[in-house]
Structure formats: C-alpha cells, structure tokens
Design brief:
The complex is a heterodimer of chains A (about 260) and B (about 300).
Chain A lengths: L2 E2 L6 E14 L2 E7 L1 H6 L5 E4 L11 E4 L2 E3 L4 E7 L3 H7 L6 E8 L10 E6 L3 H8 L6 E7 L19 E5 L6 E2 L2 H8 L5 E5 L2 H14 L2 E5 L15 E4 L2 E4 L6 E3 L8
Parallel strand pairs in A: 9-10, 9-13, 10-11, 11-12, 13-14
Antiparallel strand pairs in A: 1-2, 2-3, 2-8, 3-7, 4-5, 4-8, 6-7, 14-17, 15-16
Chain B lengths: L7 E3 L2 E3 L3 E3 L8 H4 L10 E6 L12 E4 L2 E4 L8 H13 L5 E5 L4 H12 L4 E7 L10 H4 L2 H12 L6 E4 L7 H10 L4 E4 L3 E3 L2 E2 L4 E2 L6 E4 L4 H14 L4 E4 L5 H10 L3 E4 L2 H4 L3 H15 L18
Parallel strand pairs in B: 3-16, 4-7, 7-8, 8-9, 9-10, 10-15, 15-16
Antiparallel strand pairs in B: 1-2, 5-6, 6-14, 11-14, 12-13
The chains are: A alpha/beta (about 260), B alpha/beta (about 300).
C-alpha cells in the first residue's frame, strides 16, 4: 500500500532502511531513504514508524526527525532502547523496509540570534535538526542523568564548545546539575528559548519564560495512535482547551501549555 | 462462477461494502479523508456528537496493551453546532455515506441531538451510543440497563425517521436481553461491541497509566469476545447486526459475518493499517470467489446453521 495526502504534505508508505546502528549502548540511529518525506520535513516535525506487521503491535510510534537531507533524500531518527517496540526497531535490517508516515505536526520557528536551546535526554533529536542549518549565534544546553546517557546522535556534533554545554546530574560529564540549573544562568541574557525533553523540565521552563517575559517554544511528547489529528488520543491541556500534540503541536509556545501551578 | 457482490442492506441503507468505519478512531473522518479513499468504507460512522462540546478526559489517554490498546478519550467532540456548520458540509464533499454516532448525558440530550440530525442532507443514519465506558455520562449507564435502553431508544426513535443503529456495550451480564430491549423499542440495527472496560498500571510511577484510570480495551485481544456476542445477539434478534471488535483482516471480518453479522466495522485496526477497509473488501471478494459465493446473504450466520 502507498498513499499520499491529497496535497502531498504527508507520505505514507514502506521506505528502505539505509542504516540502523547503535551509536552508544542502548542508543540507536535509523536512517531511511524517503525523499518525499525528506523534501518536506521541517525541524520539530515527526514521523510515525510502524513496527513490522508480524510483531503484534497495534500502534505506530511517533519519533522526532533528527535530520533530513533533501539532496540525499534521507531522514534519520534517534531512539533509545526502552521497551519491546524499540528493541524490535533496533533489529530492523539495513536494506529492509518499514512503513513510515510523515512529516507530521508543526515545526519550530527559525532560530533567532542569541537563542537558548535546552535538550533533556532524547529531546536532543529535534534540536539537532533545528541547529543543522543555523548560521546565527546560539547556546545549546544538553542535559542527561549520566555521561552514558549524554549521547551525540550524529558523530562529532556535540563536542563541548563555547555554545554547546553538556550537563549531567551526576557530574560525570560537563557541568554538574540539571538542565534547569544551567538554563537559569543563561535565560537572563536570552530573549528566545527552544526546548525539548521530559515534561517536568518543560513545565519549569514554561514557568520561567512566562515570569521573565521570554518567548519560548517547547516540543511536547505524548502517546499517539493516528498521528494526523483524528483520534484525540494525544491531547494536552492548553490555553485553548485540549489540543492535539500531533496536529496543533508538537511545538507549543510557553504561553499555551503547562499553565497549571 | 458467481461474480462476488459486496452490497449489503442495513435497515433502509443499501451499502456497496460491508466494511464500515467504526465511530471513534477516525474522529469526523475529515483527517483520514486526505490520507485514504473514504469510498472503500460502506459508510463512515462519525465519532460521538453531543449537544454541546465535550472537553474529553485528562491525558494520558492511550496505552498499548497485549494485542490491543486502551483509550480514555472521554468522548471529546466539538458539539452538534460545530459538526453541522463546519464538519458535515466538508464531509459531504467526499464520496462517502455518513452515519452519525450520538451521545448524551440524559435522554433529552440524545433526543434533541437526534432531532437536529434528522433533516440534515448527507446524514443517512444515526448510531445511538449507549455504551461508552469512559464517562458516566457516556451512556453506559443506559446500555447496561434494560429499561433505560428501552426508554432512550424509544424516545430517540420518535425523533427521527433515519435508520437507527444502537451500539451496545459488552460490559454487561446479559447482552441478549439488552439487544432485545433495543429491538422492541424500535432500533433498526444492533451495533456491537463497544470497548471492554480495562486499565493499566505504570509500575515505575506506581500509578495508573491513563489519566482517567479506566479506559476501553480494543484490538485483536477483544475479538473472540465480540464474536461470541455477535453470535448470541444475531441468534436472538430479527434485526441486522453490525459486528465490530478487534477486526484487522478480511479473515476476521468473515468470521463476524459467518457468526451472523450483516456488516462489520473497523476501528483501532486503522491505526496500524489506514488502508484496512480496502484490504478487507478485496479479501472478502477473493474468499467469495474461492467458495463460489455470489452474495454476502449466503454467508450471513452460516456458521450458526452448521456451515456448508
């Protein structure tokens, strides 16, 4: 089966796996030849990856797009082995096909000069895509619990430097602390924030941004079923009532979400 | 050799395919209309519409389980007015037959919603949802009680000339008596089953996965339960039965028809395979050709009559 959304915004079909490799223990990157998706993909968007049909899964899984090469027609995703689904995904062979649908959802606005980017764990994926074509000055905080979880999804991408700040909770690499500790130091000198990571981190960032009048953009994660806005399974509370992460999101402004306490 | 004909009659409705889109997973079906050909469905059943907009349940609303999934959307819907003004006109532009599922907090709301849909061009039937397990107000209180079922079906029946499907919950002691009550009160078609009540617990957080604690289980896990109930109900009532619950293939759909269903509906199976209805249509045609069967009437309830 191969279908296309009428205006060719979204593709659904089986695409060839170019590579599927472990970049660090428990962390993998999978790349597909999917020119139609790569052409359209914007930073912040995601795809649904369908597990092999003989594995008994009911639902496809949403993954943020890590990179999209328009010239090569390739798109990549970064994932961590956390359950049966991702284990099976990690066993998918180069040269075989998996069904994908995408690109889906909205995207981040372009990075402005002086921006602060905050990634918590796997939340690094959409931010890597976001900075891939950026020429303005920015600071990226990349936080994880330990050095082992502070994985660069692409080789050499996240070498510590003036504008890349690794942070670990146990201090095993980079600054010791959590993303918020470091973000608080940098927020007073920035006017725009882009972030993706655990909800508890995004929640705090949203509050800080609102109280300091900083414009912020947060990419949210939620369980999904349809991925195209039909089923209302991924709704989150926003200033406009329940909005769909797959459709109105995944990128929301800090003025829209995490409004409770 | 007969040429397989997939046409079926559901109440007054004559449909080109016995595969319908179940109420829920597709929402209004407007999003899916851009992804798949809606004509592959005999009809689409629009997700439950209430008199006023309903906000739905707090997230998380989904959890995948063994061979199935739990949902607790909470009947989030934009309300009758928005549906009539904004969604129905757009839906009419697609070549699809439209059935509207309706929900209410009380009998008056069901009646008012049904009455408002009665004269709407494009709306060909109403499915009365007296079975959603996710909200007390979602109708399960009606569908679990013989007298309330009779009362709500009777009241809505008087408000509309459209074919009336009544969707039943499996979360009852005796589904046959509920189906008979719906039949006596004037239903034209019995739809079954809605989801089975269930839950999941996150052992790391030590709390329920779903924001609503409880949800409705769908998917292949519930198909044997659904099949048994379709068998029981189609034996007990004279009305056609629209069978659903965990269908993910033509083979599954054929089992329902052999058990006594006139037609089937697919729901959460569409998440894994948005083209499922087309696959089922062609699978049923191949099966009919292989068994030299020209019309689906010949298959309906055949397993209950001892097979061929």
């Amino acid at each position: 089966m191969f279908c296309l959304i009428a205006d060719h915004r979204i593709s659904l079909g089986a695409f060839i796996i170019i590579s599927n490799e472990m970049v660090a223990p428990d962390y993998c990157r999978i790349t597909f030849s999917a020119p139609m998706i790569a052409q359209k993909a914007e930073p912040g968007q995601f795809c649904m990856i369908y597990m092999p049909s003989d594995q008994g899964f009911m639902l496809p899984r949403p993954f943020s797009i890590l990179s999209a090469s328009r010239t090569a027609g390739e798109i990549s995703f970064f994932y961590k082995l956390v359950g049966r689904g991702t284990r099976i995904l990690s066993q998918a062979k180069k040269g075989s096909k998996l069904k994908l649908m995408g690109p889906l959802g909205n995207s981040f606005p372009p990075v402005e000069s002086g921006a602060l980017l905050v990634a918590g764990g796997l939340g690094i994926a959409p931010l890597v895509f976001l900075i891939s074509s950026v020429s303005v000055q920015f600071t990226l905080i990349y936080a994880a619990r330990t050095a082992g979880e502070l994985v660069s999804p692409l080789p050499g991408l996240l070498e510590p430097g003036e504008n890349i700040l690794p942070v670990t909770e146990d201090g095993s690499k980079g600054h010791c602390g959590n993303a918020l500790d470091i973000a608080r130091e940098y927020l007073p000198t920035t006017n725009i924030l882009y972030a993706c990571g655990p909800n508890v981190m995004l929640h705090s960032l949203a509050h800080i941004c609102r109280s300091k009048g900083i414009q912020g953009w947060l990419s949210l994660e939620e369980r999904m079923a349809c991925g195209i806005g039909a089923c209302r399974g991924c709704s989150v509370k926003t200033i406009n009532g329940y909005n769909r992460v797959c459709h109105e999101g995944p990128v929301f402004s800090t003025g829209e979400v995490f409004l409770d306490a | 050799m007969h040429k397989p004909d997939l046409t079926i009659q559901l109440g007054k409705l004559i449909l080109k395919s016995p595969v319908l889109a179940a109420s829920g997973p597709l929402g209004s079906s407007l999003e899916y209309a851009e992804l798949i050909q809606l004509e592959q469905f005999g009809a689409v059943i629009v997700k439950g519409i209430s008199l006023e907009p309903w906000p739905g349940n707090p997230p998380p609303r989904l959890a995948e389980t063994a061979a199935g999934m739990l949902n607790a959307i909470g009947l989030q819907n934009p309300g009758l007015d928005f549906f009539l003004e904004s969604e129905l006109p757009r839906l009419r532009e697609f070549k699809t037959r439209i059935i509207v599922n309706i929900i209410g907090r009380n009998i008056d709301e069901y009646a008012e919603t049904a009455a408002a849909l009665d004269q709407q061009p494009g709306v060909e039937a109403i499915e009365l949802n007296i079975s959603c397990p996710n909200l007390k107000a979602g109708g399960m209180a009606f569908g679990a009680d013989i007298h309330l079922t009779e009362k709500v079906v009777w009241t809505v029946r008087k408000k509309t000339c459209l074919p009336l499907l009544v969707k039943l919950t499996p979360n009852v002691t005796d589904i046959v008596s509920i189906a008979r009550a719906a039949e006596d009160a004037g239903a034209d078609v019995i739809s079954l089953i809605n989801t089975l009540g269930g839950m999941a617990i996150d052992i790391e957080k030590k709390q329920p996965v779903l924001g609503n604690i409880f949800g409705g289980l769908s998917g292949p896990a519930i198909m044997p339960v659904a099949l048994k109930m379709v068998w029981q109900v189609s034996e007990a009532v004279c009305l056609p039965v629209l069978g659903m619950g965990g269908i993910t293939s033509a083979e599954d759909a054929i089992q329902f028809i052999l058990a006594g269903a006139r037609a089937v509906a697919v729901g959460s199976g569409l998440f894994e395979n948005p083209g499922l209805a087309g696959d089922i249509n062609s699978g049923i045609k191949k099966y009919m050709a292989r068994h030299s069967i020209g019309s689906l009437n010949e298959l309906e309830g055949l397993a209950r009559r001892g097979g061929l």
